[in-house]
Design brief:
about 300 residues; seven-stranded mixed beta sheet; four-stranded antiparallel beta sheet; 6 helices; disordered N terminus
Length: about 300
């Protein structure tokens, strides 16, 4: 039998009311998405479709704000949809939802292609808390090294590894090395046709729910063809802190740098600001309490 939602709980009631309001107003989901965009709220069509079918519920702060915006748009009284969302106990952690990843990456993204059948379970047992990323640009104007330190928290028992996926400007097979300073080597595979590398990094021990771990690794690319113009990290769940440092080789110093944020891949950058270089030819980005989206730095070469 098909996997259909229950019809007697508040979760199914939310889906039923939402779907009926859409039908009554004759609103396709792309109109709903565009209306939310006008309020600065970015949600994918997949997420809205999941709400309508009962496969998932609005739970994140941005999603709850979307519900408040949608009630008058759908001709519903204030609180008509909100009242159908169950209150969650303090400290409750939402279930892993691939739709949250698609909210940032989009449908059919390179990430989804790279992970294949494992995409629905992508880091389902972990939440990142803090990420520090130090990126080096070499004399060929290419990003050739990324040093990453991230703190994670387990959201279930018996979590054993962190999966990382990096998109590179040059990811030829055999030209990428991902190493950890301590412990067993990670399992690494390249997908040159997608310009990405995927690695499963073992944690220092099996984590129980709510335990934390710190993961360190360095990614180096040996390619010398092409030119890098930016570096960004895609964040699919709220992050406490993200620190990005980009350091340039003395013979490859850009004329200007900017840092930016965008709600999802393909969107125009928001909050684009100049990022001055210091005496060590380094620029940095340090947002706090980061909502999902893409955070990055771009630079301009003189010729």
């Amino acid at each position: 039998m098909p996997n259909t939602p229950h019809t007697d709980g508040p979760d199914a009631m939310f889906a039923a009311v939402f779907k009926e309001a859409l039908r009554r107003r004759g609103l396709p989901l792309d109109r709903v998405r565009d209306h939310l965009e006008s309020y600065g709220i970015t949600l994918s069509l997949a997420t809205l479709s999941y709400w309508q079918s009962g496969r998932s519920l609005p739970e994140k702060p941005q999603s709850l704000r979307a519900v408040d915006v949608l009630e008058p748009f759908l001709g519903l009284p204030r609180g008509a949809l909100r009242s159908l969302l169950r209150r969650r106990p303090r400290g409750w952690v939402p279930q892993h939802d691939p739709a949250a990843v698609r909210d940032v990456y989009g449908e059919g993204s390179d990430l989804e292609k790279a992970l294949g059948d494992t995409f629905p379970y992508f880091n389902a047992g972990l939440r990142r808390l803090v990420v520090h990323e130090a990126v080096s640009v070499n004399e060929h104007r290419l990003v050739d090294e990324m040093r990453v330190t991230t703190a994670v928290r387990a959201v279930r028992d018996d979590v054993r590894h962190l999966t990382v996926v990096h998109t590179l400007d040059a990811a030829q097979d055999g030209a990428v090395d991902l190493a950890v300073p301590h412990g067993p080597p990670p399992s690494v595979r390249s997908r040159p046709e997608l310009n990405c590398v995927i690695a499963e990094i073992p944690l220092g021990r099996r984590l129980a729910r709510n335990e934390t771990a710190v993961v360190e690794y360095t990614l180096r690319a040996a390619a010398t063809e092409g030119v890098s113009h930016h570096h960004e990290r895609r964040i699919t769940a709220p992050l406490r802190t993200y620190l990005l440092q980009v350091r340039f080789h003395p013979s490859a110093v850009p004329s200007r740098c900017w840092h930016y944020y965008r709600g999802h891949l393909g969107a125009e950058p928001r909050n684009r600001q100049l990022a001055p270089l210091d005496g060590f030819r380094t620029a940095h980005l340090l947002p706090m309490k980061c909502p999902p989206g893409a955070y990055g730095m771009e630079w301009q070469w003189t010729d």
